[in-house]
Design goal:
The complex is a heterodimer of chains A (289) and B (435). With 289 residues, chain A is mostly helical. In chain A, 81% of the residues lie in helices and 0% in strands. Chain A contains 11 helices and no strands. The model of chain A is unreliable at 283-289 (pLDDT under 50). Chain B folds into 2 domains: 67-185, no CATH class; 230-434, Orthogonal Bundle (MetI-like fold), CATH 1.10.3720. Chain B is of the alpha+beta class. In chain B, helix 5 packs parallel to helix 8 and helix 8 (303-327) packs antiparallel against helix 10 (344-382). Classes of the chains: A mainly alpha (289), B alpha+beta (435). Chains A and B meet through helix 1, helix 3, helix 4, helix 5 and helix 6 of A and helix 1, helix 3, helix 5, helix 7 and helix 8 of B.
Chain lengths: 289, 435
């Protein structure tokens, strides 16, 4: 008898719990829906054109570009050649920035990792430095530097380097935390300096992961470097902005740049995907570096 | 036989060492070569011509200090005093801060013994350790008299303009006007503008006033500060967050059903899967920038365009991530639910969704975090949120204190969302382990 009542009690409690949980979920869902709808209305109000008016003409611009580009199809290869140097500049900005940032990030991350830091007391300081570098958006740095240094690729490169150092520094320090510290003991016993310990004891363990993160960042940085060009730094983004602001009659240029940019992004994504796959799974035969 | 083995081992080791050495030298050399190429192709040496040290100085100075302009119109003779030379920061005529005495001869005290007198038309600047400088603008340009000796380099003299720059401030005299700058630390009028009755009051005075029922008025004067526009800034920050929120969750809502169609264990039809996966690849590959341009044509500039650009790109990303999560679910739970006689929909609802929710939510949060950062950039391109205010402030090329303020706000916003989403994700992952 008592067993039955206790089971019933549990059952009642269970259903009570389920009910409570369902109410909470329902309330949460309700709040979410209200937020989405009211948020959408606010944003729709503040926008120049409304959502429902724009949704029908969403493909007008791509269609115009495609039509004009296909009319002047014979000019497209020439335009590819014309804008290729800008594309190279955009890629160079991303590559140089990623490379420089990786080097900075390696040092910063080691200085911010327990057990590796040269000055263990300063670990929190280096962590905060990484956080701040990560938090400042790159386009802000780029715009300020354009004011100081004038236009061109250098402000964009410095800006991306700065932000990427912070972003990679954090990822690298997470990798460092998983590295074995035993090689360091061995190296200290033979009197290695801090630099030698890091180079010979840590780097060989972590370099595949570092490389894979740096590649991922390179993909992102190509996109950012194109965007920064749009805001005023050089490269293909700048050409794209010009081509678009010329309006009709120059859409063949816009189309050519669209294609160049899209193809580049896809190729880099694919290549880096293959490389990263190789680095993390299999093909470990080259244990070099 | 064994010697032979040792020999091959030795040669192998030697080869390995040779490779390692080649790598160890080759990589730094390759990096160096690449940087040299970039150095030349970006024309870094030409930077010294293109760059401007003056701009850098004014920028850095503006970040932590402000200046007060005391300007005399040399034709009409009236003196106006304004902070940063802005209309919004102008003192009402006849009023002046305590370091300026207005009168027939106005005395401007720049501190540290630097005194400037505005006479009827002429100006006298008494520089400690140097002497008295007299100047008078006239029709033929600016006439000036200096103490004996060669002109020091901080005085810039030409026919139509005299500029004297000292550590206390700057005096510029031209035919049309005479202008004095005095520099102060800090941001000007951050809390109250000059027309507010609370300007210049100390914190203790303000607290006592606040307790006497003036709090709403004080808050209003602060909130609608014309120079710093705190209410507009707060609204812009809200808009940036809103853009990221709508973009991320909108994308999640669109991607969620599509992800099922692209998952191998749910959709057996390969062409359907292939179709949706290519759509995901396409929206992801076309990038924020290109989508923003395309969408801005249809919807015009504004925050909606920014949010939609995020929806489109993140739909691709989420679609890929979600469908991978769905493919990784444990089949046993679905079988279990099926064994109780559940229909298709119920199988998904009770067999699949509970397994993937924590993973999905944690991915969504992660992207929300990065979209907050992205929303500032997109805002700058489409014209919405704090990104727009920031670019507007940068374009003026003089309001660097505002730029600094916005950057600090953005850093705080990004750090706060990082922290919050980190906490939430930790709880989600822990919660899913407990279940």
């Amino acid at each position: 008898m008592s067993e039955i009542t206790s089971t019933q009690k549990y059952e009642a409690e269970y259903f009570e719990l389920i009910k409570k949980r369902r109410t909470y979920s329902a309330i949460l869902l309700g709040v979410f829906i209200v937020l989405m709808i009211s948020g959408f209305n606010v944003v729709d109000d503040r926008n120049a054109g409304s959502f429902w008016a724009g949704i029908t003409s969403i493909f007008d611009f791509p269609r115009e570009v495609i039509l004009e580009a296909s009319e002047k199809i014979e000019k497209i290869p020439g335009l590819f050649v014309k804008f290729f140097p800008s594309l190279i500049e955009t890629i160079n900005i991303a590559a140089a920035a990623t490379l420089a940032a990786s080097i900075f990030a390696i040092f910063l991350s080691m200085l911010a990792t327990q057990g590796m830091a040269k000055w263990p007391r300063l670990i929190p300081v280096f962590r905060r430095i990484l956080d701040i570098m990560r938090a400042i958006p790159d386009f802000v740095i780029a715009l300020i530097l354009i004011f100081i240094l004038g236009g061109g690729p250098v402000p964009a490169m410095i800006a991306i380097t700065f932000h990427t150092s912070g972003a990679l520094g954090k990822l690298f320090s997470e990798v460092n935390e998983n590295a074995s510290l035993q090689p360091l003991d061995g190296l200290s016993s033979v009197g290695a300096s801090w630099m030698q310990k890091m180079l010979l004891g840590i780097l060989p363990q972590v370099s595949p992961n570092y490389f894979s993160y740096a590649l991922l960042r390179f993909e992102i940085n190509i996109r950012i470097s194109a965007i920064l060009g749009f805001v005023g730094a050089g490269g293909i983004g700048y050409d794209l902005k010009n081509a678009i602001s010329w309006g009709k009659g120059r859409y063949d240029e816009a189309g050519a740049i669209f294609i160049l940019l899209f193809v580049t992004i896809v190729i880099v994504d694919q290549l880096s995907g293959i490389f990263r796959d190789r680095l993390t799974h299999g093909k470990k035969s080259e244990g070099l570096l | 036989m064994s010697t032979n083995n040792i020999e091959t081992l030795k040669s192998n080791v030697n080869k390995l060492f040779y490779f390692k050495r080649a790598w160890a030298f080759g990589i730094p050399i390759a990096i160096l070569a690449y940087f040299t190429y970039v150095f030349i192709s970006f024309d870094i040496l030409g930077l010294s011509e293109r760059g401007s040290l003056k701009n850098a100085k004014s920028l850095v100075g503006d970040m932590y200090s402000h200046k007060v302009h005391v300007t005399r119109d040399n034709r009409k003779g009236d003196i106006s005093i304004s902070i940063e030379g802005e209309k919004k920061g102008r003192y009402p005529s006849g009023e002046a801060p305590e370091w300026i005495e207005l009168g027939s001869t106005s005395k401007i005290n720049l501190g540290n013994g630097h005194l400037i007198y505005f006479g009827e038309k002429d100006v006298v600047y008494e520089v400690p350790n140097y002497g008295r400088i007299w100047a008078e603008p006239g029709l033929g340009g600016v006439e000036a008299e200096y103490p004996n000796g060669p002109l020091p380099e901080w005085i810039n003299q030409s026919k139509n303009r005299v500029t004297i720059t000292t550590e206390a401030g700057r005096l510029t005299i031209t035919r049309n006007r005479t202008e004095v700058f005095r520099y102060f630390y800090g941001w000007e009028l951050f809390f109250f503008t000059l027309d507010s009755q609370y300007h210049g009051k100390s914190i203790s005075e303000l607290t006592s006033l606040a307790f006497n029922g003036e709090l709403p008025k004080i808050m209003r004067d602060f909130w609608y500060n014309k120079m710093w526009r705190h209410s507009d800034v707060a609204w812009a920050i809200g808009e940036t967050i809103l853009m990221a929120f709508l973009g991320t969750f909108g994308a999640a809502l669109v991607a969620f059903p599509l992800a099922f169609l692209a998952a191998k264990n749910i959709t057996p039809l390969a062409p359907v899967r292939f179709f949706f996966r290519r759509i995901f690849d396409f929206t992801r590959g076309l990038d924020h920038l290109l989508w923003t341009i395309i969408l801005a044509r249809a919807f015009g500039p504004g925050p909606l365009t920014g949010a939609l650009a995020m929806v489109v790109t993140d739909t691709g990303t989420f679609g890929k991530l979600f469908s991978e999560a769905i493919e990784n679910v444990d089949k046993k739970q679905i079988d279990g639910v099926q064994s109780t006689g559940a229909r298709n929909i119920q199988r998904y609802r009770f067999g699949v969704i509970p397994q993937i929710t924590p993973v999905l939510l944690s991915q969504i949060l992660y992207y929300f975090e990065s979209n907050i950062r992205g929303a500032t950039v997109i805002g700058a391109m489409v014209g919405g949120g704090i990104g727009l205010m920031l670019t507007q402030a940068i374009i003026t090329q003089s309001n660097w204190e505002e730029v600094t303020y916005y950057i600090i706000l953005i850093i705080l916003l990004v750090t706060a969302t990082d922290w919050l989403s980190g906490k939430l994700r930790q709880r989600l992952i822990k919660g899913s382990l407990n279940n």
